Amino acid sequence: MKLTLKNHPVITGLIIGIITFLLGWNTKGLFSGSEGHAGNVSITTEEKSAEVWTCSMHPQFKLPEAGQCPICFMDLIPLEVESKGDGPSQLSMSESAMKLAEVETVLVRRDTATALVHLSGKVEYDETLIGTITAWFPGRLERLFVDYTGIYVNKGDHMVDLYSPELYTAQEELIQSSQRLKSISDKQSSAFRTAESILAAAREKFRLLGLTDEQVRNIEQQTDPTDKLTIYSPLSGVVIHKNAREGMYVNTGTAIYTIADLKQVWIILDAYESDISLLKHGQEVTLTVEALPGQTFTGNIAFIDPVMDDRTRTVKIRLNISNENGALKPGMFIRASVKAVLDSNGDAVNPGMVGKWVCPMHPEVVEDESGDCRICGMPLITAEDMGIVSLSNSGQLPLLIPVTAVLRTGKRSVVYIYKPSDDGPRFEGREISIGSRAGDNYIVLSGLDEGESVVSRGNFKIDSAMQIAAKPSMMNPAGGISTTGHEHHGKGTNTSQNSSDKKLTTMDVAIDISSDLLNKVVDEYLILQDMLAKDEYQHAYEALMGIHNMTMGVKGAEALMNPSIKPAGDIEKLRQVFEEISIVLRHAAANGKVSIGLNEAYCPMAFDFRGAYWLQKDEKINNPYFGSQMLRCGEIKNRWSGDNATPGENHDHE
């Protein structure tokens, strides 16, 4: 049965009562009773009769007498005459009405602003601690002592027995040079000095071939050369690659083993484009590992890649982490969080790097005093000279207001200023410019001054009253007669809906993929829809990538990932991509290609009143285009059972 307000007088009465209360905010003589007993409200008989009547759903209609709305047939309500003291952007109300409406205000203040940045990545090898054992001369691998990867070896452990004719000749030369020197008794003669220099050259040749001093001494003590030589490990670590087999012939420079020291590892994190301004060199990062529940690790940002990956729209962030116990293993998945301190423009600052000395080649080397790099020996320079210090641009703390105080639509941000007066509290709408979100607050760039009071709760009620009074509001900045975007409830023409339908019919939405894959895509789509409604960007992006990965390369599924927009950390752009996918899946569901029961929902206010559809499982509206700002805005248009896609009855707006 179709649910309408007309045939439910109880619901109609409740809504009218609420809106009547909202309109009664200029309450001189309207509400009686003390502020401490705001719940006991009575209407005085001295109130002046209303001269103008309007519809709470369609405030563009203003009639001289009571009656019913010509569109939705709701009873008209009296339009409150503007208070003499109210300006064109102001609204008055009493203290008791404020309590009834649960209006709360806060002071605009300057305070430390912090933003929590969530990142993900994985453990990787420290590239500076990776070494390769190569053949220093050609020959045949007689024996490999390390015959599989993953073995931990210490510096000096034997690795390979190598046979080489060249080695045999070089050994013979060294032995003869040593014996000749011993045969010369006159140590002051030129012959002794010549033999000594020849022996030194033979020894140096072996050292250049990678032999240790002890190996060279052992060869000198032999009477006959040998055709085999043992190669020892030059460093400690784990064998991560084995590139040869016993019996292979190798040339000079052929890689035999690759060894990585895991006592220190790199954490490589992906930072989205929108988070780059919040990340600075030296910031502390807290890490958690999927494989090590309950444990946390900390490190500092050592390197920020100067080049962005144009495919993923991310930048690599690197941390150097000590790993003496070997708990962190390359390939492990990492979740990280950075608590960024922001300046008045919303950019991160890192005052802890002031006065520090850094190595230009190894920026992870940070010292309190000047000196040389402990890794490469280069002279350290100040962090200021390297350009990695960011400080507050104004010297003042940022100007903050709660997130709940801001009404956002498109590019506009509106707040309501609380102004006490002798005639009672007044509220004035003001458009402001906001910067980054800092936890539960926004940084104010312009439009507010420290010490002003803004409405932090109840601002939607105030905005609704401003719309009804035809004053400038969030949705109608010019004021005057306005449309609410809900005209689809009546008998008029809905141009937004027609535009969306036209978009649906003109877009190529042919779906020829298997029903099994399509249903999996719908499952991931429903997760995407739910995460957008919860304003959860990261999880929504992961769901979008899930759809992309499932349909990548599948013929006939190109329309699902047709949009060229790359979200890159912007949830509003992600919502645009979501709408494009919704159009395709809506078409598929309407044609019986989806076996999951779905509701088709529509919000006329999405995308600056252009309107947009989406699909959801529940009948309770869960708006993905506005999220927490207007979570219940919209209506269910159709219900598809899943098997035959038969349209169900329409349901009115909640």
Tell me about this structure.
The chain is an alpha+beta fold. Among the domains are: 9-88, no CATH class; 127-260, OB fold (Dihydrolipoamide Acetyltransferase, E2P) (Beta Barrel); 488-640, no CATH class. Helix content is 23%, strand content 26%. It contains 12 helices and 33 strands. Strands 4, 5, 6, 25, 26, 27, 28, 29 and 30 form a 9-stranded antiparallel sheet that branches. Strand 28 and strand 29 (441-446) form a beta hairpin. Helix 9 (515-533) runs antiparallel to helix 11. It is elongated, with a radius of gyration of 37 Å. The chain starts with 8 loop residues before the first helix and ends in a 14-residue tail after the last strand.
The proportion of strand residues reads: 25-35%
In helices, the fraction of residues equals 10-25%
The first-to-last residue Cα distance is 15 Å
Number of helices: 12
- Output mean pLDDT: 78
Structural class: alpha+beta
What profile does the largest beta sheet have?
A: 9 strands, antiparallel
Low-confidence segments, ≥5 residues, pLDDT <50?
A: 1-50, 481-510, 562-566, 645-654
Number of strands: 33
Shape: elongated
Q: State Rg.
A: 37 Å
Characteristic terms for this protein:
654 residues, alpha+beta, OB fold (Dihydrolipoamide Acetyltransferase, E2P), 9-stranded antiparallel sheet, 6-stranded antiparallel barrel
